[in-house]
Amino acid sequence: MMNKKATAHYIDNKKFFQAMKDWKDEIASAESAGNPKPQCTNYLGECFVKISNHLAYKSNFVNYTFRDEMILDGIENCLRYADRFNPEKSNNPFAYFTQITYYSFVRRIKKEAKQSETKLRYLQSIDLQQLLDEIEGDSGNYEYLNWVQEQLDQNARDREELKKSNTNTPKRRPKYFDEKEKKALDFDV
Question: Is residue 177 a part of any domain in this protein?
């Protein structure tokens, strides 16, 4: 039988679980002695980094421009909630910390979307046409401001189109609902 080759990219869940148990025991002994909570071990930190890095390659998260911030948020949340892992309830710390990282990624995406929406509203509130008219006398090249104005106009058209398409779309029912109603009516007769 061949031995499995250990790679630097994957986490051994059994070893990770044992490291978590040992660290939790250190925390318990430090609390009982009245000492401050010990730091997370290097191995646990490496595991958190690997989980965040590899989850960021998932197709849900790979194309975001703020991927590095998502990874850092994932590591931070793993470190923040590491002492809440209960080895008596679960023996799968990999799944526990993957979920923590996943939801930190989702929170970062929502935060960035909110920030993007705020920037868009700010740009819409500025009268770019007035700025362009005032600057025209400078005989400079202001293609960027023209491009921003075009993007804002396109965004407004897209929003209007989306509103129209959402209001006219009838809600569809699955066919089996209709079949159930037909059977119920036939039964009542």
Answer: no
Q: Within a 13 Å sphere around the CA of 38, how many CA atoms are in the beta-carbon half?
A: 16
Are 29 and 82 contained in the same domain?
yes
Contact 52, 79 (CB under 8 A): no
CA distance 114 to 134: 31
Same structural domain, 71 and 139: no
pTM value > 0.90 = no
In Å, how far from its chain's centre is CA 67?
9
Closest to 154 measured CA to CA, from 130, 123, 131: 123
What are the CA-CA distances from residue 17 to residues 51, 147, 189 (Å)?
Answer: 14, 54, 63
142 with 56, same domain: the answer is no
pLDDT for the residue numbered 121: 81
Count CA within 13 A, CB hemisphere, residue 69: 11
Structure letter (DSSP) for residue 4 = P
**Cα separation, 96 vs 90, whole angstroms:** 9
pLDDT tens figures, 92-151:
999 999 999 999 999 999 999 899 888 888 877 777 667 666 666 655 567 777 787 788
Strands (E), 134-178: none
Quick check: is 185 in a domain? no
